[in-house]
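ok trying again, last paste got cut off:
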Amino acid sequence: MRTTRRTLLASAAAIGTASAFRPLAALAQDARPDLVIAVDNLWETMDPVIGISTSGGRVHTNIFDTLVRRNRWEDPDGTELVPWLATSWERTSPTVWTFQLREGVKFHDGHVMDAEDVAFSISEQRLWGDEPDAPRGTRYVAGIVRVEAVGPLTVEVETERPDPSIPYRMVTPIGFVLPKHYYEEVGKDAFGQNPMGTGPYKLVSFDPSTELRAEAFDDYWNGPVPASSLTFRIVPEFSTRYAGLAAGEFDVIVNIPSDQIEQVRNTPGVRVMEKSIENYPMFAFNTLETEELPNNPLTDANLRKAMVSAIDREGIAAALWDGATFVPAPFNFPEYGDYYDEGRKARYGFDPERARELLAQSDYDGEELIWHIVRGFYPNYEVAAEFMVEQWRDIGVNVRIRIVDNFSLAYQRPFHLLNMSMSSEFSGDPYRPLWLDWGPNSSRATAAHKTWKPTERFLELGERFAAAQEFEERKAAYLDLVEEWENVTPGMYLWRNVVSYGVREDLDWDPGNDSVTVFDRLYMG
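nice, full thing came through this time. structure:
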């Protein structure tokens, strides 16, 4: 009898008994495929927090497990949280959440996971100290003051104020559990090049310029592992990825250009999946004056608002995506559940006359503005940028695009605009993208490539939003915070991202509405 996703989910929901996760005997070891996934790039480190990115995220969930997971195998949007390495969680005091861990879970070297590993993975040293190992994770740990192993399989997370978001944070990269003994032995840099986790596949080799290879971990707690190996191979050019898929060299390819979808769909032996995911490409205005940019015209909010009002985001998205996605009002996303208002519009929508009026109120005097964009990182982004440059030229704003090969180059100053995106892993709540991504501890406000300084009102409203417990109070604070963000206009979201895959027709795999490529038994039939 064929094992279905529903029966697999039922076994995964049998919380608290390690026996529920003994590998099934249905998959012969020598019958499993060796899968080759052709990707456009790989992040330079596979530490799941230091390497937060779309290109790293494709790999992480195959090597690591999080404490909590979103059920995308039955609901592609993943609105339900399910236990994973944590079997349960509860608020045991107003400011303390207690997590109970699964028994008998092994890391790839055979070490059995315990509460010390979990506490270390979310520790001050790793994530929230003055100089943490993984500062990119700071946005996810705001307000945490203590993480402690209080029993062999029990961890407490204490926050400075009551915080209902803690379980949701554990589906983000900070929820990945690392082996404390191995990390401390090799150090953070070596760990990023040769990582170890509890996931279904263990790393064999990694060269960030060519490929990553991982083999099935047959002691996986939630086995069996459906593929014998995974190879994520860098193939920058789409035409080469496509040719390899058509020839049977690759099993999966990523990032099909929208104008090539039909060609791939009509290829014998191939199917196409298009997924609207919870990621929103944007551009950020550099609103700061720095040593490299002492007379920055974009410190003027009227210029920023004029530029946003000059862009026909709806028209651009329709032309590029042919109905596969939509243009959001800032921070008004469907995954927010009851916070989402389908009728709400952006405060600064497409209005060329208003754009000219706002420009006239600014001090802009025709200076050239430089926009750093990473080549090929977000599908259709460069094409959209060309449209926007023309629309800005129509109102008298001079923008020049500078295409670079990676984010290290994009972050080098001076620049006036920067390509970015924002993900919203917190299903049902805008806390992460609105406050953690733009608040005082965010990379946008603190990193070397920071682009803004939050206003006093934004900070005041954000603190009120973070402290709110009841829905109505929280929603009111959220709306006020969005209003202040639009009043400042430090950037603009363009569309909800679409990821596309070309897949070998006989490969029964579906990642749900997610940008990661997970090849465990819940996502492969």
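cool. The radius of gyration is 23 Å. The CA atoms of residues 287 and 299 lie 5 Å apart.
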